[in-house]
Amino acid sequence: MKQITPKEVETLLNQGEKLNIIDVREVDEVAAGKIPGAINIPLGLVEFRMHELDKSKEYIMVCRSGGRSGRASQFLESYGFNVINMMGGMLAWEGKVE
Q: Is 63 a catalytic residue?
């Protein structure tokens, strides 16, 4: 499983990169703040919503601490998606939130 640090994600966003970020936390967790532009697909719904994703794109998976996003990354990888897990999750995120 590929991994990326929150700092690397923040740097890419600050450079104007268009990132595909999927936040797998629950709706109430996301309401407290998410990475700008991130799409919320709670972990329990990833299996049912993966048809919304494009296998030609790269996705960065995010959760609170990195555990759930790791599971989502492994699941999506097994279906041929190009995913990267953000280590440390939102607990380690120091960038802007919306």
A: yes
